[in-house]
Design a protein that fits this description.
387 residues, mainly alpha, Rossmann fold, elongated
Length: 387
């Protein structure tokens, strides 16, 4: 639609505006020289179906639509067009000069404005010393923030009214700019859990991770050590801390440089599922039961190394291998010929579904089968319903 074509004409709105407040809606119409009528007449160039239409308005709208005389449009489409034609610099200056908090909140809650404009407006908002949901104003702004960016908000419509909404948003987003903005919000100073989630998010920028590291907080540093995309600069600073270095060794994608840097943490390295076979082989050559047991738990274990580990005299290593989803089906089927490894096979996602069904019938292994993701997926797909 084209607002220019409505210049010096009238529109009829059934119900209310949605993204713009009533006052702002009228103000924006005046900018475009568009009149707002409260009844149908020959001057009406467009009819808009708004939110919260009364039964009377709904009936009237349907009658007019059936006549095929007037052009109709939904309020969301019309307001989107209004938002596209906003003079952002003028608006920002007006909001700054007026210091009208309610008007600022109104625009922050306007879902039709671009994210770039939303972030500019957010910078103008003063949170005070209260938390995200500690007063009505902060609650309104937080709800607008979460609602704008939260995936599938329609299915979780109450999530915007609690701090967990921010936490879930941080977990799900892949937007580095969004994570940067959240970290800049004043109330986050009081929320260590949100900072930890940002620290763990692999899409957080290096600049954001450095800011978090500067806090020198033990919990935040532990969260940083679990970030798969942690920079080598921060990694080197963490190497002297056994817990942090072990986390890095287990979770970071390993290249040759990092493999050498983490040689003091070979057991943790053995658990890392990004390890290529040549690095797994080097660890196997250490001939250590602790390292070999860790390798047996690695769900990206190289097949040749798996076969070599099966020759181990350490029963814990062998049992662990029969639970490893890299175990070939033919070897699982062979192991099923006796009951020595039934518990491990019941938990192995690679175990053929036919074997899992048989193990499910045995009370000793039933609960292990029930927690097997592969078995649960099959039950769901087949819609059996007795899991």
């Amino acid at each position: 639609m084209n607002l220019e074509q409505l210049k010096n004409k009238s529109i009829l709105l059934f119900g209310k505006s949605r993204a713009f407040s009533n006052e702002e809606f009228s103000s924006q119409l005046k900018v475009h020289n568009i009149s707002l009528s409260d009844k149908i007449n020959d001057e009406i160039a467009l009819i808009i179906d708004g939110k919260m239409m009364t039964p009377y308005e709904q009936n009237e709208s349907e009658k007019l639509y059936e006549k095929k005389i007037y052009e109709f449009v939904e309020i969301d489409i019309f307001e989107r067009e209004l938002a596209k034609h906003l003079n952002e610099d003028t608006l920002l200056m007006s909001l700054k000069l007026s210091a009208n908090k309610e008007r600022l909140k109104s625009f922050i809650r306007n879902s039709q404005l671009s994210n770039v404009m939303f972030f500019k407006l957010l910078k103008m908002y003063s949170w005070g010393n209260d938390d995200f949901f500690e007063n009505d104003d902060n609650r309104d702004v937080s709800a607008a923030f979460i609602s704008r960016f939260y995936e599938n908000i329609e299915q979780n419509h109450n999530v915007q009214y609690a701090t967990t909404g921010y936490v879930h948003l941080i977990k799900q987003t892949m937007d580095a700019k969004l994570l940067e903005v959240i970290l800049s919000l004043k109330p986050i100073e009081k929320n260590i859990k949100m900072k930890m989630q940002i620290a763990m998010n692999e899409f957080s920028s290096e600049a954001v991770l450095k800011i978090l590291k500067q806090e020198a907080d033990a919990e935040i540093n532990e969260a940083l050590s679990l970030n798969k995309k942690l920079s080598i600069e921060i990694i080197k600073d963490f190497l002297q801390d056994e817990k942090l270095a072990s986390n890095i060794a287990k979770t970071k994608e390993i290249d040759e440089e990092l493999f050498e840097l983490l040689q003091n943490y070979k057991v943790a390295l053995s658990l890392n599922e990004s390890l290529p076979s040549n690095m797994q082989k080097k660890l196997l050559e250490e001939n250590s039961d602790d390292i070999n047991y860790a390798l047996s738990l690695n769900n990206s274990l190289d097949l040749d190394i798996l076969k070599k580990l099966l020759e181990s005299e350490n029963e814990d290593i062998v049992l662990s291998l029969y639970e490893n989803k890299m175990m070939p089906v033919e070897m699982i089927e062979n192991a099923y010929k006796n009951n020595l490894y039934y518990k491990e096979l019941a938990q192995n996602e690679a175990t053929p579904i036919e074997i899992l069904y048989q193990l499910h019938l045995d009370a000793k292994y039933e609960r292990y089968v029930k927690t097997n993701a592969s078995f649960g997926k099959n039950i769901k797909e087949e819609n059996i319903g007795w899991l």
